Amino acid sequence: RWQPAHCSQLVLHGAVNSLVQLLKREERLQYLSVQVLANLSDKEGMRSALVRAEGVPPLVKLLNSTNDRVHACSALVLSDLATVSENQASIAKAGAIPLLVKLLESDSDDVQLVSSACLGILAYDNPDNQSAVSGASGLP
């Protein structure tokens, strides 16, 4: 069973930094690392560790992937990070909002679901992000 001490051990031993670096490698490694991060990102200590490891820019870049599984996992991790209001501006600044809006047109139901969830979290009680979502979707 997962215990909070597991997160601290992963952070202590540099696993989060290594996983973030793998997000910048070839597609197979990107998918494997973002899948691991998707399984960890809902844990309290992992969100801050991912931000400290500068994980937001490569996660946003993966929203441009041609792989729906990579899209879904990346959007899921970004959703988890966005639950911390201090992370919302950096996610938006990295260019996530227009990419997530574009993913709403994906053929994959999973990609649509996690992309819409991420947009909802980013926009909730955040007027700047609400305007960005509106602008990216062409809504008035």
Q: Can you offer a commentary on this structure?
A:
- There is one protein chain.
- The longest helix has 15 residues, at 68-82.
- The chain is mostly helical and 140 residues long.
- Helices cover 74% and strands 0% of the residues.
- The chain has helices at residues 4-12, 15-22, 27-40, 44-52, 56-61, 68-82, 85-93, 96-103, 109-123, 127-137.
- α2 packs across α3 (27-40), α3 runs parallel beside α6 and α8 (96-103) runs antiparallel to α9.
- The chain is built from 10 helices and no strands.
- The radius of gyration is 14 Å and the shape is globular.
How do you describe this structure in short?
The protein is mostly helical. The chain contains 10 helices and no strands. Helix 1 (4-12) runs parallel beside helix 4 (44-52) and helix 8 packs antiparallel against helix 9 (109-123).
